[in-house]
Amino acid sequence: MVSKRGLLKLTANCPDAEIxxxxxxxxxxxxxxxxxxxxxxxxxxxxLIGEVLVFDLGHNRYRLIATVFFGTRELYIKALLTxxxxxxxxxxxxx
Length: 95
Known about the structure:
This protein is an alpha+beta fold. It has helices spanning 4-11, 18-30, 36-42, 83-87, and strands at residues 47-49, 52-57, 62-69, 74-82. The protein is 35% helix and 27% strand. A 4-stranded antiparallel beta sheet has the order 1-2-3-4. Helix 1 (4-11) packs antiparallel against helix 2.
């Protein structure tokens, strides 16, 4: 359940992350991840916090936050955050 339109909407505020976000989308939208180890094979720097996946984008300038449900193979993009926004930890409401 990865929405390209939703991702592009998020990158409108972070245009320097758009290319890497679209690369991430190409992998994530076709991925068959059944567990976090599968995610790590594709994105070695990804973190799993509760049901939230955190991906580094834009050469580590941004964090893409997505909720994941491995059992149903669903992934929902929640936010694209700068480090400053990420450090506020408001994203943890999705954990």
